[in-house]
Design brief:
Helices cover 43% and strands 13% of the residues. It has 264 residues and is an alpha/beta fold. The protein folds into two domains: 9-45, no CATH class; 50-258, TIM Barrel.
Length: 264
């Protein structure tokens, strides 16, 4: 009888084919134990966490600015005719300049709103064209989303933004490497209003004012999907501005906070 225990792996395969035996399960194959070098390859293949990416790409991937009494208000998912004009009205009334992260498909649909953001002295950043989850996309898909949005922004306001905010704050290392090589800055946040949850004015205020500190980047929204309700953000914004000014903070844009040029 054939000795299965000592038979080389290749002979086992041949025997299975010749005798009509069922294919051997991959889980049952007698693989040798992995070596330390094998384990290191596996470890390298594991995606890095946002915290790890932040440390490794600290010059490119930003969550906050220097610890000075400055705060950058940022607004995602613009332009949106339901909410963006109301946010702009509040900022204008209180003399605050902010940074708006633009979705390319929305800018194309509402060009005058993007022009208003720019005309009133705010900074425009890139928030992708179709708002996908970048970490599940290839580097090429990431590049296409960024460049497609850039074309819309350049056509409407005349400059190519240096700052990118990935939708949901998620990005992978390959995309970060490309962004770094091209001279972009990836900007997330360290204070989250959670306003997209349709929170009340008081809850939005609490989420911001309880977490903010020197050099904070605050995430809010001035646009959203179908059924979104950002009334809480719009109503909370004047109180947030007044309270932080009373605490001695100055409002700045992202390029001012990070000491970077707004455009490439």
């Amino acid at each position: 009888m054939f000795n299965f225990i000592k038979a080389p792996f290749a002979m086992l395969i041949c025997l299975a084919l010749a005798t009509g035996m069922a294919p051997i399960s991959a889980r049952a194959l007698p693989y040798p134990e992995s070596t330390s070098s094998d384990q290191s390859v596996i470890a390298e293949a594991k995606p890095m966490t946002l915290g790890e990416l932040r440390r490794k790409y600290s010059e490119t991937f930003k969550f906050n600015g220097p610890e000075v009494k400055q705060i950058a208000l940022t607004f995602d998912d613009v332009p949106d005719p339901r909410f963006t004009p109301k946010v702009l009205d509040v900022l204008k009334k209180h003399g605050v300049k902010a940074t708006f992260f633009v979705v390319g498909s929305r800018a194309k649909k509402h060009p005058e709103l993007l022009r208003r953001i720019h005309r009133e002295g705010h900074i425009v950043g890139n928030h992708s064209y179709s708002h996908p989850l970048f970490k599940k996309k290839s580097a090429l898909e990431f590049k296409n989303e960024i460049e497609r949005t850039e074309k819309v922004i350049v056509k409407l306001i005349g400059y190519k933004p240096r700052f990118i905010r990935p939708p949901y704050g998620e990005i992978n290392e390959e995309q970060l490497r490309w962004a770094k090589k091209q001279g972009y800055k990836i900007v997330n946040w360290n204070v989250d209003s959670l306003d997209w949850k349709a929170l009340s004015k008081e809850k939005v205020k609490h989420n911001v004012l309880s977490a903010v500190g020197p050099g904070s980047i605050v995430l809010q929204h001035a646009g959203g999907g179908d059924g979104s309700n950002l009334t809480g953000t719009i109503e909370a914004l004047p109180d947030i501005i007044r309270t932080l000014r009373n605490r001695g903070y100055h409002f700045v844009t992202i390029p001012e906070l990070l000491h970077e040029q707004k455009a490439l």
